[in-house]
Design brief:
The protein is α+β, with helices and mostly antiparallel strands. The chain has five helices and 14 strands. It has two domains: about 80 residues, no CATH class; about 110 residues, Nucleic acid-binding proteins (OB fold (Dihydrolipoamide Acetyltransferase, E2P), Beta Barrel). A five-stranded mixed β-barrel has the order 9-10-11-13-12. Strands 1-2-7-4 form a four-stranded mixed β-sheet, with no helix packed on it. A two-stranded antiparallel sheet has the order 3-8. The chain is globular, with a radius of gyration of 18 Å. The N and C termini lie far apart (about 35 Å).
C-alpha cells in the first residue's frame, strides 16, 4: 500500500502475504487511518518495486504484522487531511531527475495529441515556473476518455500519479504506468499556484 501522512509525504506499507486478506476487502483507499504497532524497516533490498522503479524516496517502509491495527478516524478529521501527496514542481524534476523512482506530477495541459493508433496520448504539462515536460499516457488510462479530451481542449490542470521519468535520444519525458491515476482540476497547493498564474 501507499499512504501519505499529514505532511503529504508518501510511505510504502508492506503487508505480508499471510495478512493480505485482512486488508483487501476493507475499501481502505481514500480513507484516513491511524496506524499502530508496526515495524519500520530500512533495508533497501526489501523495498517493493514496480518494474525496477522505487515507489518513494524514503529510506523506510512500514511493515505490517499480526499486532498492527488500522483505526478509521472520524470524518471531521478526514475533512482536514490532505488528499494528494507532496508533488515536486516540473522545474525541480527537470533539474533533479529521479530516474529510478515512480513520481507524481501536476501541471497545466498546454497541448496534446493521440499517438500509436489511439493507444496513447502525448501531453505537454506546464508548472507555475513556466517549465514544460512531455507526458505520455499509455493505454492504462483508457486511451482517451472524455475528461482527458476535455482537459486538452480546455487546458485543464491535471495530477498524474506513479509515472516513470524516462530519457530517449537526449530528451527527457514522463510516461504513465499501468498503476498511474489521473485527477482532473485537483484541489491542491501546486494546482492553486498554477491557477493563480495562468487563469
Amino acid at each position: 500500500m501507499l499512504v501519505i501522512d499529514q505532511n503529504r509525504e508518501k510511505m510504502v506499507v508492506v503487508v505480508p502475504s499471510s495478512l493480505i486478506g485482512r486488508y483487501l476487502e476493507r475499501g481502505m483507499e481514500g480513507r484516513l487511518y491511524s496506524i499502530n504497532h508496526f515495524k519500520l524497516n530500512s533495508t533497501p533490498d526489501d523495498f517493493p518495486k514496480y518494474e525496477g522503479y522505487n515507489f518513494v524516496d524514503d529510506q523506510y517502509v512500514i511493515i505490517v504484522n499480526q499486532a498492527t491495527r488500522f483505526t478509521l478516524l472520524e470524518p471531521v478529521i478526514e475533512n482536514h487531511f490532505p488528499i494528494y501527496p507532496l508533488v515536486e514542481s516540473i522545474e525541480y524534476l527537470v533539474r533533479n531527475p529521479r530516474k529510478r523512482n515512480l513520481i507524481d506530477v501536476v501541471g497545466k495541459v498546454i497541448d496534446g495529441r493521440l499517438l500509436h493508433h489511439d493507444c496513447a496520448v502525448d501531453l505537454l504539462l506546464q508548472d507555475q515556473s513556466g517549465y514544460v515536460i512531455q507526458l505520455i499516457l499509455n493505454d492504462g488510462p483508457e486511451a482517451l476518455p472524455f475528461k482527458l479530451a476535455r482537459s486538452i481542449q480546455g487546458k485543464w490542470i491535471i495530477y498524474v500519479s506513479r509515472v516513470k521519468y524516462r530519457s530517449r535520444g537526449g530528451m527527457n519525458f514522463l510516461e504513465s504506468t499501468s498503476i498511474s491515476r489521473v485527477a482532473y482540476e485537483p484541489v491542491m497547493a501546486q494546482a492553486n499556484a498554477i491557477r493563480a498564474i495562468y487563469r
